[in-house]
Amino acid sequence: MKLKLENKEIELADVWVNYLYPYLIRFCLRKGIEIEWKNDTIFISKENQKDFNQVLRSVLRELLHECYKEPTHKERSKNSSRYQKIDFEGKIYILNYRTDIVGIVGYALDYLIKETIPIKE
After folding, report:
1. Which listed site, 33, 72, 90, 109, has its alpha carbon 20 to 30 Å from 4?
2. Each residue of 22-39: pLDDT tens digit?
3. How far apart are alpha carbons 90 and 39 in whole angstroms?
4. What is the bridge-based pairing of β-strands 83-88 and 91-96?
5. What is residue 72's three-state secondary structure?
6. How far is the C-alpha of 18 from the C-alpha of 12, rounded, in Å?
C-alpha cells in the first residue's frame, strides 16, 4: 500500500498499515475528510496534510506513552545496530526498530511524521 501526498509517494509496510488503519478511519470520520482509496493507494490532499500529520503525532504520542520502555545499557551495547534514537516532543526515545514491535511501529511513525510535514508556500 502507498500513501500519496501532493508532492511525494510513500510505500507503507504491512505492519504500518495494520497499525494505522483504525486511526485513518476515525480520522476521516471525525474530520469529515474523504481519503480516496484506489489501487492500494491512499490519497491525502494538500488541505488535509496538516491534520493527517497531527493524527500521526497523536498516534506516536499514545504508543510511546502507553508502551515505551527504555532499553538497558546492556541491551543497547549488546545489539547496538538494532537501536535508533528519535527526538519526539523534546524527549529522546531509543527504539529497537528491528525486533521490538513498539520500536518498529514507533520508528515508522516518526518517519511518516517527518515525511508528511506540509510544505509551506
Report:
1. 90
2. 988 888 787 776 666 667
3. 38
4. antiparallel
5. coil
6. 10
Cell reading at 104: 518498529
Task: Look up cell 518498529; give the residue.
Answer: 104
User: If we measure between CA atoms, which residue out of 14, 41, 4 comes closest to residue 105?
Assistant: 14
Nearest CA to 70 out of 48, 50, 96, 44 is that of: 96
Residue 85, phi then psi, degrees to nearest 5: -95, 140
Q: What is the pTM of this model?
A: 0.88
- Looking at residue 65, its amino acid is H
Instruction: Report whether pLDDT(106) > 70.
Output: yes
Residue written as grid cell 490519497: 43
Q: Which pLDDT belongs to residue 121?
A: 55
The separation between CA 20 and the C-alpha centre of its own chain, rounded to angstroms, equals 8
Q: Given a cut of 70, is residue 90 above it in pLDDT? A: yes
**What's the pLDDT at 34?**
63
Query: Cell digits for 77?
Result: 551495547
Number of neighbouring beta carbons within 10 Å of residue 36? 10
Give the separation between CA 75 and CA 23, rounded to whole angstroms.
Answer: 32
Sign of the C-alpha dihedral computed for residues 27, 30, 36 and 38 taken in this order: positive
